[in-house]
Amino acid sequence: MGTIGTISTGNYSSALLKESVQDTIFDTYKDIAGMITILKKLGPKKKATNMLFSLLNGDIEALASATTAAVTAAAAVPVMAGTGVNFAKYDSVAIYTAAGVIEASGVVESVSTDTLTLNAAVTCSSGSTVAITGKAVPEGLDIEGGIYVEPDKQSNYIQPFADQWKITDVMKFSAGYGPDTARRQKDQMMRRFLRRIVVSLYMGKKATPTVASTADWTTGGMLDTLSTNKFSGSSITETAFASNVKDWFAKGGSRKLLACSGTMLNTIWSWGLADRQVPNYATKLGLSIREYMSPNGPIMIYQDRILDKIAPAMAFGIDLDYLGTAELIPMRKHTPAQGMSTADEGGISWYMGWNIANESAHALWYQIS
Question: What's the predicted TM-score (pTM) here?
Fold first, then answer.
């Protein structure tokens, strides 16, 4: 079993490790590394000190619930299952309809998982919203039961991404060898290297080493993390998409990005040209990014061509305030230590993982058609 925090550079000389080459590589391979560029530039950056790194998955405070039955002159108000505990004694609440009519107000006396007991009898409709409007504490009385929310601690792993190219003396005498062989080998290595990192963002499965002395740490990606906002995209309409987006925007920040294949992109554009525009930051990033103006706010739209290959029926909703990179060792090119090899060869490595916090701030659409 591997040991947390133990890494090895193998036969590569630390003296020959180059400085970080991320920016140059990302600029050269924008067609593949677009999502990495976006997250490195716009997402949070975390410096890991170990192969295992932690993050907090604290949800945004729930400020409202909804009644599940009509109430007539009673203090007990039934609310959605599991949401009663989001309220506390002395919370002042307002109960209002979808039409914007306030039906009642009161102060919470006690709570259970699906019931609020108020300080006075109220009358309200089924399906009305119950919202916290403040704290109503009697003068001279301390707030009962100070609230301490223990954050939901999550973790992920740093994955040693690496690849290399090699040309042996035997290859040099083959019919296929030419003056551009080394350049082509390096280019193919870089594309392979970056493509695997991007795929791990979407499909990576968090895991620790299972074979002794083998660095097979793998970092968890979006599919391995998301559980809350998962929507069917089968025959999706603009109305259904707007409803999904409302849930997506309910928690997290306002900087939302939809990474999708051409299938989802064509569907969104079919809803009307007036809803899309080119944001200013797209030019700075050098990427083809559009902006869809949803009722809840702007959504950056980026067509990741890797998704066209591996998951054309999926689209990933990313909150840029809660998804970024965690880095243990910067991306570096390397060459073998002197005397270790007689071949023309080189490689690249990056010890990094995906810092995905607040999973409910992200979203997934699947079975898009």
Answer: 0.71
